[in-house]
Design a protein that fits this description.
Alpha-Beta Plaits; 5-stranded mixed β-sheet; 5 strands
């Protein structure tokens, strides 16, 4: 198993004040998909109907909570993050600007052009504007956080979510757990069955993880045949149970030609740890899970180990 811990964090002293997420996250992408595929922006702006539908009614149509509606409209249109109050004011001004330009030109200029013109020429917010297809943007954003092969989240997304959970735990005391998983003898499996079958085994592993874990858990491909699972709100004892369910599910699954492996089965080893107040940084927690994983591998594979102060445990 190759070590894949290099250069995640610059030092053991995490700069917690810098952990605020500034990149696209899953919620952003889901909202963008909802707004673009259902053409909700065009509907509420009047592009597709003769009058603008009531915003509050549309909130129920979208199924979103109040407090993020206008923020997401602006973000979907121009990829600028604003507080909800400012976004609401800007949205009203963009609509006024849209109708003013449309009246002067004698045609509907469309909400996308009006928004770009407003932020470029009225508010002076954009220096080098670019117009891109919204659906293409959503697809690109999705690929930025998803592992191409397995469709689990990728390492970048894991790093962001991990930092976020660690910061929440540090500030609010909200516990969470981390599982690191490695497929046993996977190099042998690859060598004997070929890389295509090895890729299929990785895809099937992620399907198992998604079936066992809850929707709140974050399943990521950490590197090669190694995966991580973030368990929000789960203390160590519950995380150990989840890890055991994962181990058993992978062991029970019938992978193609797994009988050629030394143990006759494609199994997994897992390391588990949970947030504690004495942890200085996310790196500390990651190292604990990695140490526990190595203990599981070194003690015979196809088992789980939790990081405890007593190495014999």
């Amino acid at each position: 198993m190759e070590k894949t811990m290099d250069n995640i964090y610059n030092s053991d002293e995490a700069h917690l004040g810098d952990l605020e997420d500034t990149n696209l996250n899953l919620e952003d992408i889901d909202n963008l998909k909802n707004l673009t595929t259902r053409k909700l922006i065009e509907i509420v702006s009047g592009d597709l109907v003769e009058h603008i539908k009531d915003d509050e009614i549309l909130l129920d149509t979208i199924g979103k909570k109040p407090g993020t509606y206008y923020r997401d409209l602006i973000f979907a249109l121009i990829q600028i993050r604003l507080p909800e109050d400012e976004a609401k004011r800007d949205w009203k001004e963009v609509l006024k600007h849209k109708y003013l330009i449309s009246e002067k030109l004698g045609r509907n200029v469309g909400i996308h052009v009006a928004t770009l013109d407003y932020y470029t020429n009225i508010k002076k917010r954009i220096i080098n504007p670019k117009i891109i297809d919204a659906n293409d943007y959503v697809d690109t954003a999705s690929r930025a956080i998803i592992d191409d092969l397995t469709k689990a989240y990728n390492r970048h997304f894991f790093d962001d979510e991990f930092r976020k959970l660690f910061l929440q735990a540090r500030t609010s005391g909200k516990v969470f757990s981390l599982i690191m998983l490695d497929l046993d003898h996977f190099k042998i499996y690859n060598d004997l069955n070929g890389h295509i079958q090895g890729d299929i085994a990785l895809i099937e592993t992620v399907r198992i993880l998604h079936a066992v874990c809850s929707q709140d858990d974050t399943v990521s491909r950490y590197g090669g045949e190694e995966f991580t699972i973030l368990l929000p709100s789960q203390p160590l004892n519950l995380a150990i149970k989840t890890a055991e369910n994962i181990r058993q599910a992978i062991f029970d699954y019938r992978f193609v030609n797994e009988q050629s492996l030394p143990s006759g089965r494609l199994s997994s080893s897992l390391g588990v740890t949970s947030y504690r107040d004495d942890m200085d940084s996310p790196q500390n927690m990651l190292e604990e899970a990695d140490v526990a994983l190595y203990r599981a591998k070194n003690s015979g594979r196809n088992r789980i180990k939790a990081f405890l102060s007593d190495p014999a445990v």
